[in-house]
Design goal:
Helices cover 61% and strands 11% of the residues. By secondary structure, the chain is an alpha+beta fold.
């Protein structure tokens, strides 16, 4: 039987309401299902925000998930409201824009996110990619790590485009046509890896150098003032 994310989320939401009642403030969907880019192997990246989250709530949530179909596909984020509004603001930028609401709203986060938080999101993303890419080139030399880094780079590119235009584009297909050449090449390479997985191994050195140099330029461009 074909999997339908909307049907699954409807049942999931019903179970959450029964479990948490009025303490349930928000439910959302992130990742490829949230963007409408899911494949058969995609995870269900669910977001749950409670008025207050305790270890007991986490145990109850886990037990509830164990009763659902496709349990192994479920991952995601659960948090209390106070913790979320005091979260690292550069993380909140991506969190807000990459979350598709299913129940409730997280619009209260938007006024908390300033321009410097977006710049910090780019800097942190670039620094992490630079570090891991360099480590991979010297030590692991692992094509799977390289593919994961290009996947991470897509989020940094979304932040760059938002910084430049004030527009957040979730879908890669819509984003790729409006990017500057350097970012377009990085995003296109990530897409190539999904369609032709072996390319990351056969062209490991070239694509590692491309990503490493791109991240290096971003670190300097988005340096702390």
């Amino acid at each position: 039987m074909d999997f339908n994310i909307d049907t699954w989320m409807k049942g999931y939401l019903g179970e959450l309401k029964s479990l948490f009642g009025s303490d349930l403030l928000f439910v959302g969907l992130q990742g490829s299902y949230g963007r409408g880019e899911a494949t058969d192997s995609s995870d269900i990246d669910a977001v749950v925000i409670l008025n207050h989250a305790t270890p007991g709530d986490l145990k109850a949530y886990s037990a509830m998930l164990d009763t659902l179909l496709n349990r192994k596909k479920v991952c995601g984020f659960i948090s209390g409201w106070q913790e979320l509004i005091n979260w690292e603001r550069s993380d909140l930028f991506q969190f807000y824009h990459d979350t598709k609401p299913v129940f409730g709203s997280i619009d209260f986060l938007l006024p908390l996110i300033g321009q410097e938080d977006i710049h910090r999101a780019v800097r942190i993303g670039a620094c992490n990619i630079y570090h891991m890419c360099g480590h991979n080139m010297v030590h692991e030399k692992d094509a799977e790590v390289l593919k994961a880094l290009y996947k991470s780079a897509a989020f940094t590119i979304q932040a760059i485009y938002y910084d430049q235009t004030g527009t957040y584009i979730k879908q890669k297909a819509g984003l790729i046509s409006v990017l500057q050449p350097q970012e377009r090449e990085i995003l296109q390479t990530g897409i190539i890896f999904k369609k032709q997985p072996n390319v990351a191994q056969t062209e490991f050195e070239r694509f590692s150098e491309l990503l490493f140099n791109w991240a290096a330029r971003l670190i300097i461009k988005y340096k702390t003032e």
